[in-house]
Amino acid sequence: MHRMGEDSQWVRNDFSGQAQNVVQVGTVNGSVHFHGASGGGSPCRYGLIPAVAPGFQSREALPDTPGCTVVAGTGGVGKTQLVAEYARHRWSTGEIGILGWLSATNRSAAASGLTGLGRAWCGGDPDPEWVLDRLATTDIPWLVVLDDLQDPRDLDGLWPPDSRFGRVVVTTRRRDSAIRSRDRRVVEVGVFTPEQSRSCLVDRLSAEQLVGVDEIGELVGHLPLAVGQAAAYMADRGLTCEQYSRRWRERSLASLFPPAGELTREERAVALTWALSVELADELEPVGLAGRVLAIVSVLDSHGIPMNVVTSPPVTQYLGSTAEDVADAVGCLARVSLITWEADLIRIHALTQRATREATTDIPSIARVAADALYSVWPEADIDGEATLRANTTALAAVAGTELYTSDLHAILLLSGVSLGESGQHGAAIDYFRRLLADATDQLGPDHPDALNCRNSISHWQAQAGNIADSWAGLRELLPDLARTLGPGHPFSLMTRNNAAYLRGENGDAAGAVAELQALLPHFIRVLGPDHRNTLNNRQCIAFWLHCAGHIAQAFAAYRQLLADRTRVLGPEHLHTLVTRNNIAGLLGDAGNPVKAVRELEALLVDMARVLGTDHPETLNSRVQLTRWRSAAKGTEAPLTELEPLLSDVARVLGPEHLLTFTVRRDTARCLYRDGNPARAIAELETLLADQLRVLSTDHPDTLNTRHSLAGYLRDTGDHARALTVLLALLPDITRTLGPDDKYTLDVRYQIALCHIDNGNQDSGREKLEALLPAVAQVMGLTHTYTHTIRELLASPQG
Predict the structure, then answer these.
(1) What does the alpha-carbon distance between residue 220 and residue 196 come to, in Å, rounded to a whole number?
(2) Left if phi > 0, otherwise alpha if psi is -120 to 50, otherwise beta: which for 227?
(3) Mean pLDDT for the chain?
(4) Which of 1, 279, 506, 589 could form a disulfide with 597 if both were Cys (CB 3.0 to 4.6 A apart)?
């Protein structure tokens, strides 16, 4: 029942008004870009720690022992600055070897941050759970900062572990019981004291400017953010504190912000200092541009906005300016402390963002421009860059509301969801597209192509997560709606029909999948042409399921022709060309030539490592195949010394619940059994089976394989009663999935009969063998070992 790793058969539609192109996605996330592993050495730092704000005042001391500390306080009091000082000091003195500065504004940001930390630490694209497990077991001192936690529920299952080597610091505006527990220390951060406000101003201003210094703190309520903005304004203008106070009082907040009555005291202080600072920034060269740039920044993620978003063509065209002038305007904003700008990331306080939005009349247009800007720079992003762009998309969507749902869903909304899934967060991607589907249905209608695309995306990520049954059901429900609205021959309809046919095979009907896919091929050729990637992908599906259905010669011919065409159309080093070579190698092994399969895979892995990298999922998949066929060529299982590092790499890159990880775990259990450790092998299989039943399904081929192996090990070790229990539960499932005449179904019946005999129930065992013999002889042949053994058992007086 083993299924080889294969090229992705799934075709995802990117059917938006702004990007109507077809994208093929790998079943093992082939479209994700991976970094090479660093080997897990230290020191390792991930995330951008905010720079020290001018006039920074050190205040509350944070606990200097392992554990979790929550730094709580209202916006603008300097929580992040306080923690940044703490983190910088611990890093610079060598007290910690691993430092992660992660945004915790929502669950997706926290999960992406953990993955980024794991990538920087150990390479690949690890699952957040794997990173947390690694933090729990490492003896390297570490610090993880979770900045700006807004909802503690977002960290359910993502809290860094308790460790005598680890420290966790959380910043949040929450002060309720949700962030308090017996094992979390809470440090409350308030506004400056009068002395601290004065010190901040003294640090920034000349002696002549300090006339009236004590009045500034009182004006702004000693809010550190407002004190800092006031200091920057005065420093740039050469004003005294007394002169600044006069200008501040002359401001009418009501005239600036109509809903000013809703502002808190802190927001009011920021609004007034903001108004003066923006006027100053707008007077600097290029005149009049800084405030308009700030409006763009105000609708994006306060924790980090890539500079190339702000200088992108959509923004410069909207502003009627050049990228150089926009960059200069950003510098003006940083000069008066309205933003910070470092390492090509712009940071801005959420209060400053609100003050800006309150004073901006055309937020809808700005939101659409910002969405266009994010979409325009996405192809340039690496993995960490995609996480940052996803965070910006989330922040923008919260501000924009329905402005991104006009005649279509804005393409950035679809792209962000795809990126989320491709980062390995399959469950989060499913939830994302479900929410997007609800919004698209409400705003655009259930038959809008974008609503249909969301339904397709839900099924796609369900399949990636191993939920084949729900994915297949979703596609079958989608198909008639596509045929009604777009027509059965539309490319989107063809792709969905292809995916549904592929999932039919995944659900156990390989022959039915082949028939459906072959019937689709002429339509792909007619609509898209013979060399279109999705036409080639349909042929890949046909070859794959021919192989699974046991038609080796037909599959081999189909793969050979496909390889020639993919090499011609895509090139010899394209991902899909390389994966077709992998499939041919596996087919050679299944056809009884493991030595040649090994030669093909060894040559292939050299090319894959060079082109894709050692941590690419398809490279790992080919390593798994090479291990298997080397074992077959030698007539023995792969050594544990080869399987354990392979399992570590696969689990690190793909996550502990990926299909390929499950495969290597089963191979490892088989190796343990061969090496004389049956108890551990059985325990490993039982743990694996529990995970597969939770992640996959009872009828998934990999689950059936594990159940079959477990029963065999139990019987071989003399635990006939448990073996019989497993086999009796397996028989109806494997019969329903593979059919009554499949060799694995016959083997299960054979094992059941032997278990009855082993348990002393000779008559029942002989009866089952007599009923089984005709089917075994017909399917496996008269000379097969099983046929011969059954006849011998029946001929024996003792059975």
Answers:
(1) 13
(2) alpha
(3) 86
(4) 589
